[in-house]
C-alpha cells in the first residue's frame, strides 16, 4: 500500500493502530491486521499535523499542529477516538510533547522557550499547572522513571525539572 503526501505517523503502543498525518489537515487511523492496513477513522484538523502522540494505554491521542494547537482525543468510552479538548494557549510552534508513564502529566515545549506542565483535572480536562522559562527553545522532552522529573533539551543545553 502506498500512502502519498504523508508527513507524520505514529504507531499505538499496543501496535494495533497506525496514525498517519498529511498536508490535507487530516489524521487517518489504520488498524494493523497481519500485513494489511484497514482505514478505521479520519480526524479533521484546522492545520497540518506536526506531532502525533498516543498515551501509554492508547486511550488518549494527542495531535499537535504546526501553529501550536494541540487536539486531544480519547477512546475510553467508545470504539473510536472523539475530540474532547483543544489546548490553545501554546504561544509558538511546538517542537516536543510527551506524556509521563501513566499519562497523568503532559509536558509541552518548543519555540516559546518554556516548558509547560499540564495535568488532568477531575473533569478529565488538561489544565496548565506550571511553566518554566528557559534560555532557549526546547527540542526534546523525556520523563524519568520517577514521574516527578522531566529532562528537556535543545541543541546545546539540558534542563532538569522537578514537578511539585
Automatic annotation (TrEMBL):
Pfam families named among the record's database cross-references: WD40
Cross-referenced InterPro entries: WD40/YVTN_repeat-like_dom_sf, WD40_repeat_dom_sf, WD40_rpt
UniProt-listed PANTHER family: CYTOSOLIC IRON-SULFUR PROTEIN ASSEMBLY PROTEIN CIAO1-RELATED (PTHR19920:SF0), WD40 PROTEIN CIAO1 (PTHR19920)
Name listed for the protein in its UniProt record: Uncharacterized protein
Species name: Paramecium tetraurelia
Native organism taxonomy: Eukaryota, Sar, Alveolata, Ciliophora, Intramacronucleata
